[in-house]
Specification:
There is one protein chain. The chain is an all-beta fold. The protein has a single domain, classed as Rieske Iron-sulfur Protein, CATH 2.102.10. About 0% of the residues lie in helices and about 45% in strands. The strands form 3 sheets. It has a 4-stranded antiparallel sheet with strand order 2-3-4-8, with no helix packed on it. Strands 1-10-9 form a 3-stranded antiparallel sheet, with no helix packed on it. Strands 5-6-7 form a 3-stranded antiparallel sheet, with no helix packed on it. It is globular and about 40 Å long. The model has no long low-confidence stretch (mean pLDDT about 95).
Length: about 100
Amino acid sequence: MSTLVRVCAQSEIPAEGKVREFTVGGTTFCVAKAGGSVCVLDGICPHQGGPLGEGEIENGHVVCPWHAYAFDLHTGTNDEDPELRARVYPAKVEDGALVTEV
């Protein structure tokens, strides 16, 4: 059973081409905006636990600042190592807030 969680206010969504980190109820999220879409992924890099929400966006991927592992914003996959995958959460803006299902 999934639960709808408020990640941040709509005004806190990062600008185009940027990422931001939010922690809600002990879960860290990486919120990114690219190509006009807002994407929500696990905030913890599956490689070695780096902060994805402090990374950069390159070619539709969020790049971890620790070891430069890149994860597709829409699928969470890593092009070089298919075993590494960041969880992607369905997200939408609703009543002035970014919400996701966990």
